[in-house]
Amino acid sequence: MTSIRGSRNTSSDGRGEIAGEHTISIVVHLRPAEAERGEARHIEEAMRNYFAYRSKVLGWDLRDLFRTGRASLMIGLAVLAACIVLGKGASGLLGTGYLGRFFDEGLIILGWVANWRPVEIFLYDWWPVVRRRRLYRRLSLAQVTVVAEG
To answer: How far apart are the C-alpha atoms of 60 and 10, rounded to whole Å?
Structure first.
């Protein structure tokens, strides 16, 4: 059994997260026979390495997310520009009546919808990844104690 100790903050949405300014200590509870084994001495190093690796993986994920966001933004802006030109061309051919307005405004909406995903990436999607990466970095620095119980 493992427990993580540290002070907890509760954010406005009710989720708890270990407070950033306090150190984290992880206590691993083992039966006496398991605590005496040689593998028990490597638990602290293993946990540090695991959380450091998870932090690194999230850094890679963040870099990939921003790369996807940049590519999506270029595509979205190109689609928006094409939709604006096509919409103006359609309204020029069809006139200023309902049909011309339908194609002009419909294509502009399509162009903005093409930018939905990049805007979502750059405004919202990266925050949870950064928050988890920060937590894993802190956990990689946590003090790990093995306690024999039973």
So the answer is: 28
In the prediction, which pLDDT does 75 show?
97
Contact 121, 65 (CB under 8 A): yes
Q: Are 92 and 21 in contact (CB under 8 A)?
A: no
Contacts of 25 (CB under 8 A, 6+ apart): 4, 5, 6, 142, 143, 144, 145
Distant-in-sequence, close-in-space partners of 128: CB < 8 Å, separation ≥ 6:
none
**pLDDT single digits (tens) 100-137:** 888 889 999 999 999 999 999 999 999 999 999 999 99
Torsion angle of alpha carbons 52, 57, 61, 67, nearest 10°? Answer: 100
Distance CA 7, CA 63 (A): 31
Instruction: Give the type of residue at 30.
Output: L
Amino acid, res. 100: G
Query: In this structure, what token pair is assigned to residue 12?
Result: 């406005």
Q: Is the pLDDT of residue 11 over 50?
A: no
Q: Quickly count: other Cβ atoms within 10 Å of residue 105's Cβ.
A: 12
Task: In whole angstroms, give the CA distance from residue 78 to residue 116.
Answer: 13
In 3D space, the residue among 27, 21, 46, 57 whose CA is nearest the CA of residue 132 turns out to be: 57
